[in-house]
Design goal:
Bound molecules: guanosine-5'-diphosphate, 6-O-phosphoryl inosine monophosphate, magnesium ion
Helix content: 25-40%
Largest sheet: 9 strands, parallel
Number of strands: 25
Strand content: 15-25%
Radius of gyration: 23 Å
């Protein structure tokens, strides 16, 4: 596998490789980034998003999940450079917790840098995110609560802080006060008990930043962020864009994306998206490069599809019933298994099939533990997504092993609109309109039904080591390639680094 991976990268003259997700996140970016970091990359950079990401890495039966750190961090002891780039929403609180965990696994942080221009994520961002989500009635986005939206909003409103402000206390204080002004005014309009409740959350250090009189305790924020985090981060914060520009062409650079194309604020299913553009162009920018610098992109797709949080998901198994089930108050993995753990993956009831697939694929959020909606692979979605991927890309497929028990499989070939008359640009959409390519408009997608192709499953365990794939598995991959016009190049047959098949 190692040699084939290196050959594949050589064939594409790759010096800069980007790893992103084709759809709604959680496709296995962490697994791939860790693998490529071990075998090929000299420098690994996170360029977008923040601690809303949850990237899982399995090594020798041990699970690691990183939210803020690049997935190459387990290799920093081998001299690999890891960077949190200028496009990220950098959360010092999550970082310090993660750093402690990774240090226990041998991480040294001796080749680690944070961009001085990274957007600083502070307690008020989490407060605003959570209060807004708690108050939302219709159209809840279902954010991760990590403060991502408010942090990027501040950036565009030109009232944000950057990692560099941690160096200069006086500047930090006046910028912080300016940043809090509007938020305090807004929060005064909200039920004080809700604000207090939100602030007691563990992620907000259990009330540390709460002031009954002023809502935010400015001194507590300054003390924790400038005096403690700032000092600890002192040696890491630098001009990483310059570092990356200098390395371009000389060293192997891996750009690790977060979220997925369909969650992009610019190209995704707005407003049910995150607050950054998660496509390769913005990833390159957030890492200190340009899209044209990227030689090859791995736009990873799952062998089926998942989506966590709100927003339309036409191929979700069980449809509306499934969406309600997974967002029910108090729902979690243990409760699902206790109540429905015995349903069959080959049930005639799509809702039950979906539950069984979620359990089989362990589709529970790496950041929030929420149930991910699960559904069939959607070629219409993928065709749209592929257009966002830049010059040269492959579409590695992950989690093929999870489909092993299905007797029959479906792939969505097109989406059929079934809602009221609606206009998008010059397009007048009526009932029965078919989309061979997803239209990224949530008002259209919420009324779209999938049109499926069906095929036999392989209905046996895939041998993850000898690389002899069952004929039905090969046919499934060929069908996906033919339907989407993309080459897969790499197949992932299990969660471990070694369970990977490079074609
Ligand atoms: P990311 O956000 O794209 O890094 O993906 P996540 O880590 O959130 O979710 C992917 C999940 O699938 C993780 O639990 C991985 O360990 C797991 N995974 C990745 N590839 C495979 C695979 O080929 N087979 C199986 N069974 N699990 C996989
Ligand atoms: P990785 O990098 C899956 C989703 C949330 C919500 C929406 C907005 O692990 O693939 P946010 O907190 O960003 O404001 O939430 O985006 N979301 C993700 N879904 N994987 C992720 O990251 C996600 N990051 C955000 O569930 O629907
Ligand atoms: Mg994830």
């Amino acid at each position: 596998m190692r040699n084939r991976l290196l050959k594949l990268l050589e064939r594409h003259n790759a010096k800069v490789l980007a790893i992103i997700c084709s759809t709604f996140g959680d496709s296995g970016k962490g697994k791939f980034a860790d693998l490529v970091a071990e075998e090929w990359a000299d420098i690994i950079i996170r360029g977008t998003g923040g601690a809303n990401a949850g990237h899982t890495i399995w090594v020798n039966g041990q699970k690691h999940v990183v939210h803020m750190l690049p997935s190459g961090i387990l290799h920093d002891k081998d001299g690999k450079v890891n960077i949190i780039g200028s496009g990220t929403a950098f959360d010092p609180y999550v970082f310090s917790k993660e750093q402690n965990t990774i240090r226990r696994s041998g991480g040294t942080f001796s080749n680690f840098y944070i961009s001085h221009r990274a957007h600083l994520l502070l307690p008020q961002h989490k407060v605003m995110d959570r209060v807004r989500e708690s108050n939302a009635t219709e159209g809840k986005i279902g954010t991760t609560g990590q403060g991502i939206g408010p942090c990027y909003t501040d950036h565009y409103a030109r009232i944000g802080l950057t990692a560099n402000d941690l160096f200069n206390k006086d500047v930090f204080v006046w910028k912080l006060k300016r940043n809090l002004e509007d938020k305090i005014k807004l929060l005064r309009l909200v039920d004080p008990e809700l604000v207090k409740y939100v602030m007691q959350h563990e992620d907000l250090e259990s009330g540390e930043y709460y002031s009954a009189r002023d809502i935010f305790n400015v001194d507590a924020i300054v003390n924790r962020y400038v005096m403690q985090h700032g000092l600890a981060l002192n040696e890491y914060i630098t001009d990483t864009d310059e570092l990356v520009r200098k390395a371009r062409g000389k060293q192997n650079i891996l750009l690790e994306g977060a979220q997925g194309n369909l969650l992009s604020v610019d190209y995704g299913t707005y407003p049910y998206v995150t607050s950054t553009d998660c496509t390769v162009g913005n990833l390159a920018k957030g890492a200190g490069l340009r899209e044209g610098d990227v030689d090859l992109t791995f736009a990873i797709a799952k062998a089926y599809m998942t989506r966590v949080g709100g927003g339309p998901f036409p191929t979700e198994l069980g449809g509306e019933r499934a969406a309600q089930w997974r967002s029910a108050p108090g729902m979690n993995r243990l409760r699902e298994i206790a109540e429905l753990g015995d349903v069959s993956i080959n049930s005639d009831d799509e809702f039950e099939q979906g539950v069984a697939l979620r359990i089989e694929g362990e589709e529970y959020g790496a950041t929030t533990g929420r149930l991910r909606g699960v559904g069939w692979f959607c070629a219409a979605t993928q065709r749209y997504s592929n257009r966002l991927n830049g010059r040269v890309f492959l579409m590695p497929i992950t989690k093929l092993d999870v489909l092993s028990k299905f007797k029959r499989l479906k792939v969505c070939r097109a989406l059929r609109y079934n809602g009221p008359d609606y206009r998008v640009g010059n397009l007048r959409i009526r009932k029965g309109h078919e989309f061979s390519e997803l239209l990224p408009d949530s008002e259209v997608l919420r009324y779209c039904e999938p049109i499926y192709d069906e095929m036999p499953g392989w209905n046996c365990e895939i041998d993850k080591t000898d690389n002899k794939l069952p004929l039905e598995t090969i046919n499934y991959i060929r069908h996906i390639e033919q339907q989407t016009g993309a080459s897969t190049g790499i197949l992932s047959l299990g969660k471990d680094r070694n369970e990977t098949y490079v074609m």
